[in-house]
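Fill in residues.
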């Protein structure tokens, strides 16, 4: 359940957060605020998906199965 909620976090941040962050001022690193918001969430999506990967119990199996060898 926690993994699904973490997976929803980028969706909420990018798609539902943009209407609330839709303004030009202040400039963040020379970008309008809404563009900086989207760039921030693209980076955070990678971080969140890395956390989901680490917490997923299917990735904790040892041996050759975890290495992804093809049969």
């Amino acid at each position: 359940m926690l993994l699904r909620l973490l997976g929803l976090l980028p969706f909420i941040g990018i798609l539902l957060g943009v209407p609330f962050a839709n303004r030009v001022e202040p400039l963040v690193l020379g970008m309008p605020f809404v563009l900086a918001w989207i760039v921030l969430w693209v980076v955070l999506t990678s971080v969140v998906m890395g956390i989901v990967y680490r917490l997923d119990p299917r990735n904790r199996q040892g041996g050759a199965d975890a290495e992804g060898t093809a049969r």
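The helical segments are 2-16, 18-21, 33-55, 64-67.
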